[in-house]
Each structure stands twice: as C-alpha cells, then as structure tokens.
C-alpha cells in the first residue's frame, strides 16, 4: 500500500467511524446495540487490514533480502570465474 493509499484508507475509515459514533450517540435501545455491533465489526476489519499490511511488509523485506543475497552471490561467482579463467593455462575458444 502506498502512502497515498494508506492516507485515503485512514481517511475513509475515520469518516465511517465518525458517522457510526454520531449515530450511536443519537440512538437508543436495539438500534444502539446494532450500531455498537457495527463499530465492533469495523474495528475487526481495521485490525485485519493492518495485520495483512504488516505481513506484506515483512514478506517484502524478506524478498528484498533474498534478492540482495542473489546479487552478492552472482557478483562473487563472476569474480571467481574471472580468477579461474585468468589462472587457467589451457587453450580456450575466443568466446570464453
């Protein structure tokens, strides 16, 4: 989620929360209980979304680490190959 997407998400969530809070304060009886349930549901949705975002961030970090390691090992292999070919005294075709 980009920063702008996160800001839009937070803004929408806050707008819904404000509306539900206002409705909760104005209502009574069974209606008040329904709105309280809706507030609980929206909070669960928010927690779930944050959990997914956190998991995604962790997985992205791990993927970045793996890609960085691949690059390092490829560079090491290239250096090793250059050393081997430099020290190799056998006759090789020009493309190698």
- Annotation field: number of helices: 2
**Helix and strand run:** HH
Give the helix/strand class: mainly alpha
Total beta-strand segments: 0
Shape: rod-shaped
Q: Main beta sheet: strand number and arrangement?
A: none
N- to C-terminal distance: 46 Å
Beta-strand residue percentage: under 5%
Helix content: over 70%
Summed over residues and divided by their number, the pLDDT gives a mean of 89
Cα-atom radius of gyration: 29 Å
Model regions low in confidence, pLDDT < 50 over at least 5 residues: none
Give the gist of this structure.
It is built from two helices and no strands. It is mostly helical and 96 residues long. It is rod-shaped and about 90 Å long.
Can you give a write-up of this model?
By secondary structure, the chain is mainly α. The chain has a domain at 3-66. The protein has 2 helices and no strands. The longest helix is centred in the middle third of the chain and has 59 residues, at 29-87. The mean pLDDT is 89.
């Amino acid at each position: 989620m980009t920063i702008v997407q996160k800001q839009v998400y937070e803004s929408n969530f806050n707008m819904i929360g404000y509306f539900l809070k206002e409705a909760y304060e104005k209502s009574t009886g069974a209606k008040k209980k329904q709105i309280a349930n809706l507030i609980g549901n929206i909070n669960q949705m928010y927690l779930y979304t944050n959990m997914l975002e956190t998991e995604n961030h962790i997985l992205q970090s791990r993927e970045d680490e793996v890609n960085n390691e691949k690059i390092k090992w490829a560079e090491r292999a290239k250096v090793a190959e250059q050393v081997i070919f430099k020290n190799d005294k056998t006759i090789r075709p020009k493309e190698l």
